[in-house]
Design a protein that fits this description.
With 460 residues, the protein is α/β, with parallel strands linked by helices. It folds into two domains: 124 residues, Leucine Aminopeptidase, subunit E, domain 1 (3-Layer(aba) Sandwich); 316 residues, Zn peptidases (Aminopeptidase, 3-Layer(aba) Sandwich), CATH 3.40.630.10. The chain contains 16 helices and 19 strands. The strands form four sheets. Strands 6, 7, 8, 9, 10, 13, 14, 15 and 17 form a nine-stranded mixed beta sheet that branches. A five-stranded mixed beta sheet has the order 2-3-1-4-5, sandwiched between helices. Helix 5 runs parallel beside helix 6, helix 6 runs antiparallel to helix 11 and helix 9 runs antiparallel to helix 12. The chain is elongated. Belongs to the peptidase M17 family. Its EC number is 3.4.11.1. One of its GO terms (biological process) is proteolysis. It holds the Pfam family Peptidase_M17.
């Protein structure tokens, strides 16, 4: 899917963006025909409203989009996007009403409002195109939109067509587009190369488990992204109930997000040495499934008692994080649809993250606010370390009791990173119901914030 601005020389309908508390002042500045038409139609400037203004021949000579009240705009991430579908098909040019510092966000929302998942059913929505305002870096906004579309598509594709093999192919396609190097360790070769937990989690599936390793860039700080690629999660022998299994095609949302983030980085040609690691597996049920009570030995040598086979994401991430840490990068970032506890804590709209580095954490949170990609910092709470120490092994993959599930999962992962700065994102990767700029389905979370924070975080 191509989400792009209209060429700057395209004939466009002037679009006035008008807030509800600024409507009277705007009306007073308009010619009689516009003022009378807008007033007679009862346009109030409320968010999500729009009005076409016809000329003498009935053709539109202008359009007005409601921007709402300032106090209410905080409730909606992409305000202008809510009005896009109310406009007639055509090409538009914003002629006022949005502050320059908000234009990148609002124009990104406009592009994302045009996203459609069309792999299985055509959706012939009539386009509302936008000419990029002169103050907006159009190429960067288009890059952010394209990366988001990639992430959404990968998550939206069901496991029947997005298993470990297809996820590997998606990574290969991205690598080919940006001249990145890629290698993949598959099946029993995982054991031979000391990735035992990736192999164990994925060995019961028809498609072999694998570790995808993509590298790009020859100089600059080293950045490693690790994404959970569980292409479907039945829960294993601790089988999920049907209601909990319905969305498990999105359990590779961490992988989809790091691929989208990698695309942003490579498209911007950031001066970094980028590495992307994706353990791609399906957590299935068969005679050789791993079992509750098993004790696994990780790549790092730490032993893990399995108290729930449905806590598998942290197992495959642990081996990948160990490999990442062996390279001693300047920064490791992991992204995973890891715990339901994170959703209970902050809901689907916020991406919680964990980081011991206060400066890095502050930069991430600030970038999230700027990029309409909100984050919420959670604690690596040291007193809970004992909850992941079962006694019979070094670590417990699913502490009993149910308390602090996102925190204990993050503490588990941190045990496998000792030599590098580290931030972990426990994302949802899904939009439960449609919102402006965010269609129902797969969603990028945290990637724009990370991308915007990288120059400061890595001293670029």
């Amino acid at each position: 899917m191509t989400l792009r601005f209209a060429p700057s020389d395209t004939a466009a309908i002037p679009l006035h963006v008008v807030s509800s508390d600024g409507l009277e002042a705007w009306l007073s500045s308009q010619p009689d025909n516009i003022r009378n038409w807008v007033s007679s139609c009862g346009f109030s400037g409320a968010m999500g409203t729009a009005l076409m203004c016809p000329g003498a021949d009935g053709q539109p000579i202008a359009a007005v989009a409601g921007y709402g009240a300032e106090a209410l705009r905080k409730r909606q991430r992409f305000v202008l996007a809510g009005a896009v579908s109310k406009l007639a098909p055509g090409t538009y040019e914003i002629v006022g009403g949005i502050a320059d510092d908000q234009l990148p966000t609002e124009t990104l929302g406009w592009l994302l409002e045009g996203y459609r998942f069309t792999k299985y059913a055509g959706q012939n929505a009539k386009a509302r195109a936008l000419v990029a305002p002169s103050s907006v870096d159009a190429a960067q906004v288009e890059s952010l939109a394209a990366a988001e579309a990639l992430t959404r598509d990968l998550i939206n594709i069901p496991a029947s067509d997005m298993g470990p093999e297809a996820l590997e192919q998606a990574a290969r396609d991205l690598a080919g587009a940006y001249s990145a190097e890629i290698s993949v360790t598959t099946g029993d070769a995982l054991l031979e190369n000391n990735f035992p937990m990736i192999h164990t989690v994925g060995r019961a599936a028809d498609q072999a488990p694998r570790l995808i390793d993509m590298t790009w860039g020859q100089s600059g700080p080293k950045l490693t992204l690790v994404g959970k690629g569980v292409c479907f999660d039945t829960g294993g022998l601790n089988l999920k109930p049907g209601a909990s299994m319905g969305l498990m095609k999105k359990d590779m949302g961490g992988a989809a997000n790091v691929l989208g983030l990698a695309r942003m980085i490579m498209q911007a040609n950031l001066p970094v040495q980028l590495r992307v690691l994706i353990p791609a597996v399906e957590n299935s049920v068969a005679g050789n499934s791993f079992r509750p009570g098993d004790i696994l030995t990780s790549r790092k040598g730490l032993t893990v008692e399995i108290n729930n086979t449905d806590a598998e994401g942290r197992l495959v991430l642990a081996d990948a994080l160990t490999l990442a840490d062996e390279g001693k990068p300047d920064l490791i970032i992991s992204m995973a649809t890891l715990t339901g506890a994170a959703r209970v804590a902050v809901g689907p709209d916020l991406a919680p993250f964990y980081c011991d580095d206060d400066t890095l954490a502050s930069g991430l949170q600030s970038a999230g606010n700027r990029m309409a990609d909100p984050l919420w910092r959670m604690p690596f709470w040291e007193p809970y370390e004992t909850m992941i120490e079962p006694g019979i092994a070094d670590l417990d993959n699913a502490p009993a009791g149910g308390f602090a599930g996102s925190i204990t999962a993050a503490l588990f992962l941190r045990r496998f990173v000792e030599q590098s700065r580290y931030a972990h994102f426990d994302i949802y990767g899904w939009q439960p119901k449609p919102a402006p700029g965010r269609s129902k389905g797969g969603l990028g979370q945290g990637c724009r914030a990370i991308f915007a924070a990288l120059p400061e975080a890595l001293g670029l």
